[in-house]
Design brief:
Layout lengths: L4 H12 L7 H4 L11 H55 L6 H47 L8 H55 L7 H6 L6
Length: about 230
Protein backbone atom coordinates (compact mmCIF):
# COMPACT_ATOMS: atom_id res chain seq x y z
CA UNK A 1 0.00 0.00 0.00
CA UNK A 2 1.58 3.22 -1.08
CA UNK A 3 1.22 6.55 0.66
CA UNK A 4 -1.23 9.01 -0.82
CA UNK A 5 -0.42 12.61 -1.69
CA UNK A 6 -2.88 13.67 1.02
CA UNK A 7 -0.12 13.46 3.64
CA UNK A 8 2.25 15.54 1.55
CA UNK A 9 -0.50 18.03 0.77
CA UNK A 10 -1.15 18.65 4.45
CA UNK A 11 2.55 19.09 5.17
CA UNK A 12 3.08 21.52 2.28
CA UNK A 13 0.03 23.50 3.32
CA UNK A 14 1.36 23.89 6.84
CA UNK A 15 4.69 25.16 5.55
CA UNK A 16 3.03 27.52 3.11
CA UNK A 17 1.04 29.33 5.79
CA UNK A 18 2.71 31.59 8.30
CA UNK A 19 1.60 31.89 11.93
CA UNK A 20 -0.30 35.10 11.15
CA UNK A 21 -2.46 33.39 8.55
CA UNK A 22 -0.84 35.16 5.59
CA UNK A 23 -0.18 33.04 2.51
CA UNK A 24 3.33 32.27 1.26
CA UNK A 25 2.70 34.43 -1.82
CA UNK A 26 1.89 37.40 0.37
CA UNK A 27 4.96 36.85 2.55
CA UNK A 28 7.22 36.94 -0.51
CA UNK A 29 5.51 39.98 -2.01
CA UNK A 30 4.16 38.04 -5.00
CA UNK A 31 0.55 38.82 -4.12
CA UNK A 32 -1.12 42.09 -3.15
CA UNK A 33 -1.51 42.73 0.57
CA UNK A 34 -4.92 42.27 2.12
CA UNK A 35 -6.55 43.51 5.29
CA UNK A 36 -5.47 41.78 8.45
CA UNK A 37 -7.61 38.97 9.78
CA UNK A 38 -9.51 39.43 13.01
CA UNK A 39 -7.68 38.06 16.07
CA UNK A 40 -10.30 35.33 16.48
CA UNK A 41 -9.82 34.14 12.89
CA UNK A 42 -6.03 34.26 13.25
CA UNK A 43 -6.20 32.15 16.42
CA UNK A 44 -8.61 29.70 14.84
CA UNK A 45 -6.42 29.25 11.77
CA UNK A 46 -3.39 28.64 13.93
CA UNK A 47 -5.30 25.98 15.84
CA UNK A 48 -6.52 24.46 12.57
CA UNK A 49 -2.97 24.22 11.27
CA UNK A 50 -2.07 22.34 14.45
CA UNK A 51 -5.01 20.00 13.90
CA UNK A 52 -3.91 19.42 10.32
CA UNK A 53 -0.36 18.66 11.46
CA UNK A 54 -1.62 16.08 13.95
CA UNK A 55 -3.82 14.51 11.28
CA UNK A 56 -0.90 14.31 8.85
CA UNK A 57 1.28 12.65 11.51
CA UNK A 58 -1.50 10.20 12.44
CA UNK A 59 -2.17 9.15 8.84
CA UNK A 60 1.55 8.84 8.15
CA UNK A 61 1.94 6.68 11.26
CA UNK A 62 -0.99 4.49 10.17
CA UNK A 63 0.56 3.95 6.76
CA UNK A 64 3.97 3.14 8.22
CA UNK A 65 2.38 0.64 10.61
CA UNK A 66 0.55 -1.07 7.74
CA UNK A 67 3.73 -1.24 5.65
CA UNK A 68 5.72 -2.64 8.58
CA UNK A 69 3.11 -5.31 9.32
CA UNK A 70 2.98 -6.35 5.67
CA UNK A 71 6.77 -6.68 5.57
CA UNK A 72 6.80 -8.63 8.84
CA UNK A 73 4.09 -10.98 7.61
CA UNK A 74 5.83 -11.63 4.28
CA UNK A 75 9.13 -12.40 6.02
CA UNK A 76 7.54 -14.77 8.53
CA UNK A 77 5.49 -16.51 5.84
CA UNK A 78 8.59 -17.06 3.71
CA UNK A 79 10.52 -18.47 6.68
CA UNK A 80 7.63 -20.75 7.61
CA UNK A 81 7.35 -22.05 4.05
CA UNK A 82 11.10 -22.71 3.93
CA UNK A 83 10.95 -24.72 7.17
CA UNK A 84 8.02 -26.78 5.92
CA UNK A 85 9.73 -27.52 2.61
CA UNK A 86 12.89 -28.57 4.46
CA UNK A 87 10.97 -30.94 6.74
CA UNK A 88 8.99 -32.42 3.86
CA UNK A 89 12.14 -33.00 1.81
CA UNK A 90 13.78 -34.88 4.69
CA UNK A 91 10.66 -36.97 5.22
CA UNK A 92 10.46 -37.84 1.55
CA UNK A 93 14.12 -38.83 1.51
CA UNK A 94 13.62 -41.08 4.53
CA UNK A 95 14.47 -40.48 8.17
CA UNK A 96 14.02 -41.92 11.64
CA UNK A 97 10.92 -41.47 13.77
CA UNK A 98 11.16 -38.37 15.92
CA UNK A 99 14.41 -37.20 14.32
CA UNK A 100 15.65 -34.44 16.71
CA UNK A 101 16.76 -32.28 13.78
CA UNK A 102 13.29 -32.38 12.26
CA UNK A 103 11.65 -31.82 15.64
CA UNK A 104 13.80 -28.70 16.09
CA UNK A 105 12.93 -27.50 12.59
CA UNK A 106 9.24 -28.09 13.26
CA UNK A 107 9.49 -26.08 16.49
CA UNK A 108 11.02 -23.20 14.53
CA UNK A 109 8.13 -23.41 12.08
CA UNK A 110 5.65 -23.39 14.97
CA UNK A 111 7.33 -20.30 16.45
CA UNK A 112 7.04 -18.50 13.12
CA UNK A 113 3.38 -19.42 12.89
CA UNK A 114 2.83 -18.04 16.39
CA UNK A 115 4.50 -14.82 15.26
CA UNK A 116 2.14 -14.72 12.29
CA UNK A 117 -0.76 -15.01 14.74
CA UNK A 118 0.62 -12.00 16.61
CA UNK A 119 1.01 -10.04 13.38
CA UNK A 120 -2.61 -10.82 12.55
CA UNK A 121 -3.71 -9.46 15.95
CA UNK A 122 -1.70 -6.28 15.37
CA UNK A 123 -3.36 -5.85 11.97
CA UNK A 124 -6.79 -6.18 13.61
CA UNK A 125 -5.83 -3.46 16.08
CA UNK A 126 -4.61 -1.26 13.24
CA UNK A 127 -7.98 -1.59 11.53
CA UNK A 128 -9.64 -0.06 14.60
CA UNK A 129 -7.10 2.78 14.71
CA UNK A 130 -7.69 3.49 11.05
CA UNK A 131 -11.39 3.93 11.71
CA UNK A 132 -10.46 6.57 14.30
CA UNK A 133 -8.21 8.32 11.79
CA UNK A 134 -10.97 8.42 9.18
CA UNK A 135 -13.37 9.88 11.74
CA UNK A 136 -10.85 12.54 12.72
CA UNK A 137 -10.25 13.51 9.09
CA UNK A 138 -14.00 13.85 8.48
CA UNK A 139 -14.44 15.91 11.64
CA UNK A 140 -11.63 18.28 10.69
CA UNK A 141 -12.88 18.67 7.13
CA UNK A 142 -16.29 19.66 8.48
CA UNK A 143 -14.71 22.05 10.99
CA UNK A 144 -12.62 23.73 8.30
CA UNK A 145 -15.70 24.11 6.12
CA UNK A 146 -17.81 25.55 8.93
CA UNK A 147 -15.09 28.10 9.72
CA UNK A 148 -15.73 29.75 6.36
CA UNK A 149 -18.58 31.58 8.11
CA UNK A 150 -16.35 33.15 10.77
CA UNK A 151 -16.78 36.94 10.87
CA UNK A 152 -13.66 38.95 10.12
CA UNK A 153 -12.08 36.39 7.78
CA UNK A 154 -10.25 37.69 4.72
CA UNK A 155 -10.14 36.16 1.24
CA UNK A 156 -6.71 34.79 2.09
CA UNK A 157 -8.16 33.13 5.18
CA UNK A 158 -10.88 31.54 3.09
CA UNK A 159 -8.27 30.21 0.66
CA UNK A 160 -6.44 28.56 3.53
CA UNK A 161 -9.64 27.04 4.87
CA UNK A 162 -10.57 25.67 1.45
CA UNK A 163 -7.11 24.14 1.10
CA UNK A 164 -7.25 22.67 4.60
CA UNK A 165 -10.68 21.16 3.92
CA UNK A 166 -9.53 19.63 0.64
CA UNK A 167 -6.42 18.16 2.26
CA UNK A 168 -8.47 16.67 5.12
CA UNK A 169 -10.89 15.12 2.64
CA UNK A 170 -7.96 13.66 0.69
CA UNK A 171 -6.58 12.22 3.93
CA UNK A 172 -9.98 10.69 4.76
CA UNK A 173 -10.14 9.07 1.30
CA UNK A 174 -6.62 7.69 1.72
CA UNK A 175 -7.42 6.20 5.13
CA UNK A 176 -10.58 4.56 3.80
CA UNK A 177 -8.61 2.93 0.99
CA UNK A 178 -6.13 1.75 3.60
CA UNK A 179 -8.97 0.33 5.70
CA UNK A 180 -10.32 -1.58 2.70
CA UNK A 181 -6.89 -3.06 2.02
CA UNK A 182 -6.32 -4.03 5.65
CA UNK A 183 -9.73 -5.67 5.93
CA UNK A 184 -9.10 -7.68 2.75
CA UNK A 185 -5.77 -8.80 4.18
CA UNK A 186 -7.46 -9.83 7.42
CA UNK A 187 -9.97 -12.01 5.58
CA UNK A 188 -7.24 -13.73 3.57
CA UNK A 189 -4.93 -14.19 6.55
CA UNK A 190 -7.67 -15.60 8.78
CA UNK A 191 -8.31 -18.46 6.34
CA UNK A 192 -4.59 -18.98 5.72
CA UNK A 193 -3.67 -19.14 9.41
CA UNK A 194 -6.43 -21.64 10.10
CA UNK A 195 -5.11 -23.92 7.36
CA UNK A 196 -1.49 -23.49 8.44
CA UNK A 197 -2.24 -24.47 12.03
CA UNK A 198 -3.94 -27.64 10.84
CA UNK A 199 -1.10 -28.38 8.44
CA UNK A 200 1.59 -28.06 11.11
CA UNK A 201 -0.32 -30.50 13.34
CA UNK A 202 -0.31 -33.01 10.49
CA UNK A 203 3.34 -32.34 9.78
CA UNK A 204 4.27 -32.98 13.42
CA UNK A 205 2.62 -36.40 13.22
CA UNK A 206 4.71 -37.10 10.13
CA UNK A 207 7.88 -36.11 11.99
CA UNK A 208 6.92 -38.34 14.91
CA UNK A 209 6.59 -41.42 12.67
CA UNK A 210 9.44 -40.39 10.35
CA UNK A 211 7.39 -40.62 7.14
CA UNK A 212 5.22 -38.26 5.09
CA UNK A 213 1.47 -38.51 5.68
CA UNK A 214 0.44 -36.93 2.39
CA UNK A 215 -1.81 -34.18 3.80
CA UNK A 216 1.05 -31.74 4.29
CA UNK A 217 1.13 -27.97 3.89
CA UNK A 218 1.85 -28.04 0.17
CA UNK A 219 -0.84 -30.57 -0.80
CA UNK A 220 -3.43 -29.00 1.47
CA UNK A 221 -2.71 -25.59 -0.03
CA UNK A 222 -3.16 -26.93 -3.53
CA UNK A 223 -6.44 -28.55 -2.51
CA UNK A 224 -7.68 -25.22 -1.13
CA UNK A 225 -8.08 -26.43 2.43
CA UNK A 226 -9.34 -23.71 4.76
CA UNK A 227 -11.97 -23.56 7.43
CA UNK A 228 -13.97 -26.78 8.14
Amino acid sequence: MRRNDAIATLAVLLLASGPTGRSAAQETGLAPAHAESSPIVTQRLEAFRGDAARLAAKVDGDQRAADALNAERDGLAASLAASVVSIESRLQAGTTAGNPDLVAEWQRAQARLSSLDEAFAKLSQLSARLADSAGLADYLANSFHAAMNLPGATDADHQQLVALEAAANDAADHVRRLIDGVNRDLDVQAASLDAQHRNLVTLRHAVDIGAPLGNNLATMGRNGMGRP
